[in-house]
Amino acid sequence: MSQDKENINDCWNKIGVWRRGDDICSRLEYVIHCRNCDTYIENGLNLLDRAIPDGYIQSNTRLYRESKNDEDTTTVSCIIFRIDDEWFAFNTFVLDKINENENVHSIPHNKNSLLLGLVNIMGELEICLSLKPLVFTGVREPSADNGTGRMMVISLESGKYVIKVDEIMGIFRISSNEMGQAPVSLTMSANNLISSVFEHNKFHIGLINEKNLQNCISERTS
After folding, report:
1. Residue bearing the bigger pLDDT, 46 or 178
2. What confidence score (pLDDT) does residue 92 get?
3. Lowest mean pLDDT among 5-19, 53-67, 113-127
4. How far apart are alpha carbons 184 and 192 in whole angstroms?
């Protein structure tokens, strides 16, 4: 049977686990603490079983019925990173983990500039890629790898890949209203990898389309 809050015997507030004057609960010798006592547990269950307050259902129905603002529902979670002096981003759902820079083991007779080799990530050998041949194609010549920075492990349809980057800014939620169309010159020169551009911390950032990246990887490594 439900019980009103006013009728609850809250003896734990009146006596508690410490002696107050000459009062002390005789049960404390056996239960040690009020939370182990049947009286405390029973009253807690009665609180959960009490009648719903007047207006509670109507108030919550109105809350869930109201439409949300666009800014609450149309944001994109991105991880922002730098390659050379340009900033890019992935949707975070492709991100598997971030790792410190590890030694890359080259593959004999490999002449593919996209495929750097194999790298050991937490005991597993993963394919390590450089995005420089893709994102800078037709724009400018990318700089040589300086061996510093971080490694991002991403999951695409064909499996996991390790991407070498120079710096990771972090993970941010970007409003879709801030996303703009990538210039035609950029999309054509960068293998159509950049699906949109946005500004963050005064940097212009290109959002990489993971499906187009998957296609580029498949074409260049098959």
Report:
1. 178
2. 93
3. 5-19
4. 9
Is the full-model pTM beyond 0.90?
no
pLDDT of residue 217: 87
Count of CB atoms situated within 10 Å of the CB of 104: 18
Domain with CATH 2.40.50.180 in the chain: 73-221
- B/e letters for 22-59, b = 16+ CB within 10 Å, e = fewer, are eeebebbeeeeebeebebbeebeebeeeeeeeeeeeee
Encoding tokens for residue 156?
């695409």
Q: To 5 degrees, how large is the angle CA 126–CA 132–CA 134? A: 95
Length of the chain: 222
CATH number, domain 73-221: 2.40.50.180
All residues at 6 or more sequence positions from 212 whose CB lies less than 8 Å from its CB, including other chains: 191, 192, 193, 195
DSSP 123: T
Q: What order do you get walking across the sheet with 86-91 strand by strand?
A: 167-175, 75-83, 86-91, 203-208, 194-200, 180-181
For the chain, the average pLDDT equals 79
For 167, the 3-state DSSP assignment is: strand
Report whether pLDDT(18) > 60.
no
Measure CA of the first residue to CA of the last residue in the chain; give whole Å: 70
